[in-house]
């Protein structure tokens, strides 16, 4: 068995609940379990089988029967291609930081703004009356050191490039004559190109016979690095463990966002619900010589405009990806398209982490729901892939795949009819499911001899089929 342990309590299937996407009642179907503690490897593998966490509750939509089939979506961050809309959003942010002017949003971008990440659907999370002393149990088991969040650094400031921007100029009627006239954008581009040519010449590099260099497509990092350091505003991004995220500023921002954007009644957004939903995580902060500097686990990326918190992105850093959990922001800054902007920053963050962690190369965006138009914006981050709900293979989002979803909201993406789940859990694997009962680790075949029953066998087989054979042999299934 692995030297890292996960402990889950499987609750079974939840049928006919209210859908948070189409808002219909008695139409949403899913399976759920509570994760008391979970290794980042186990959660990575569970996501690759269609699972998703909300706080410590993990759920897997029953795509074949639910009203809004939800397909796991991930973007290949290393090969990410920016669209014109993405470039406009970053330029608008940089211009606002430089000039402090709230630029009006064009229709294309306002449509994108309507598609900011909605809240997760209402999940039937059963009250877990069984209290597990996880530390007492896990400390008895051999495993690598798991760092307590309180021992980690409280913040990480994402470095900003030091490229100065132009000062904002007033209108001709109120121009400040003490300042030099504003240069045309074309002239600025020419000057930058000439400076680049001069630098290349000084370094002994070819300059194409002193002819202007051909335009080289700028990367995501190039656009983000154009953020000015001497403008009207400064934007800083800090990374902190999610366990430290329940600050007064974050709570106030969360309440404002949920009330204005999602129309939640004020009494619903309590500090306890905020902590349960976005701060508490089963993933333990883990730092070792192969992890990112801040470790694997759950984090908050805080966006500070000067001294004001304007957005918080909740993310999980896992062995192969950065997973976006949720975003909440100040509605006063909706003109900055913070939902899309934060996604671009998280893709850039993934690419930065990959430099020290070669396997960490994907950006997971939760679920893609084709039947919900407001969720289709995720497919615009290219190249992206969807997870087949039957074979658990990845498939590029193409016009043909989208047409297939237009015809039928639930589809099997793998067109090979002979293809099967490589990690398929079969009846013969049931006896090898690892269980935790009465503070003792045992295989299911031993547990069932103590507490036999067809219903117990049915639920355990259902659990194994959903998590897969490999996870069923690693994750401790709590029995009470």
Descriptors:
single chain, 480 residues, alpha+beta, 7-stranded mixed β-sheet, 15 strands, 28% helix, globular
Query: Poorly predicted ranges (pLDDT <50, ≥5 residues)?
Result: 107-122, 142-174
Secondary-structure element order, as H and E?
EEHEEEHHHHHEHHEEEHEEEHEEHHHE
User: What percentage of residues falls in helices of 4 or more residues?
Assistant: 25-40%
Number of beta strands: 15
In which order are the strands of the major sheet placed? 6-7-8-9-10-5-11-12
Overall pLDDT metric: 85
Q: Main sheet, how many strands, which sense, barrel?
A: 8 strands, mixed
Distance between the termini: 22 Å
* Outline type: globular
| Overall radius of gyration | 25 Å
Structural class: alpha+beta
SS element count, helices: 13
Strand proportion:
15-25%
